Amino acid sequence: MIKKIVRWMWKALLWFFGLSVASVILFKWVPIPFTPLMVTRIIEFKLDGGDAIYSHKWVPLSDISSNLQKAVIASEDGNFLTHSGFDFKAMQKAYKSNQKGKKLKGGSTISQQTAKNVFLWQGRSYVRKGLEAYFTVLIELIWGKERIMEVYLNSIEMGNGVYGAQEAARHWYSTTAKDLTPREAAGIAAILPNPRKFKASNSSAYINKRKDKILRVMRHIGKIEY
C-alpha cells in the first residue's frame, strides 16, 4: 500500500511538473484570455446577486505606453529590471515592517505577482507561496522580463471588474493604453494596492499623493531596455 501511494505521488508530481512547464511555454507566445482571479471575481459578483462585471482586452506591449511600464516599476518593483524574480531586500524590509505591527506589506515583485495572478489562487498560505516561487522561477527562465511585463500589464486588476492596461485606460481616462500620459499612468499605478477601493481619476488626497510620488520616481527611470 505504501509503495502504491509513493508511486501515485511520484506520478502526480511528474504530471504537475510537465503540465506546469508546458503551460508556461505555451503562454510565452499565446495571449492569456483569463486568470483565476477573473473567474473568482465573476463568481463573487454572481453570489452577491449582481451582474458579472468583466472588462478585459489583450494588447501587445508595443501598444502599452512606456509611461505605464515606468509607473508600475516605480510603484510596485523598483528593481524589476535587475533582479532574478525575487527582491530579497524588499522582502526583508517588508518582514521587519510587519514584525513591528505596521501595515502589512508583501514585498512581492512584479514577477511574483504575475506568477500568482496567472497560475494560482488568491490567499495566504505556505503552499501557495511555495508554488508562487516555483512559477516565478519558471517565468523568469522561460519568458524573460519583457514578456513578464506584457502579461502583468494585460492581466492585473485595475478597477472593479477591469483587467489590463487597455481597459483601464478606457475606463479611467477614455483613452488607449498607448496614449497614457505620465500623470494618467501614475494614476493607474497608484491604485494597484486596492483597485476595487481606490479611483485612478477623481482620486482621493491619498491617491493624489501616491501619484505625485510615483511621478517623481518615474523621472529617474531612463529608457526601459528588457
Give a written overview of the molecule.
- With 226 residues, this protein is mainly α.
- It contains ten helices and three strands.
- It has a three-stranded mixed β-sheet, covered by helices on one side.
- Strand 2 and strand 3 form a beta hairpin.
Short descriptors:
226 residues; mainly alpha; three-stranded mixed sheet
* Major sheet summary line: 3 strands, mixed
The global form is globular
Reading side by side through the largest sheet, how are the strands ordered? Answer: 1-3-2
Determine the strand fraction and express it as a percent band: under 5%
Any idea what the radius of gyration is? 19 Å
**Number of DSSP strands?**
3
Number of helices: 10
How are the elements arranged and paired?
Blueprint: H1 2-26, H2 36-47, E1 55-56, H3 66-76, H4 88-99, H5 110-119, H6 126-142, H7 145-155, E2 157-159, E3 162-163, H8 165-173, H9 182-190, H10 205-218
Parallel strand pairs: 1-3
Antiparallel strand pairs: 2-3
What's this entry about, in short?
With 226 residues, the protein is mainly alpha-helical. The chain has helices at residues 2-26, 36-47, 66-76, 88-99, 110-119, 126-142, 145-155, 165-173, 182-190, 205-218, and strands spanning 55-56, 157-159, 162-163. The longest helix is centred in the first third of the chain and has 25 residues, at 2-26.
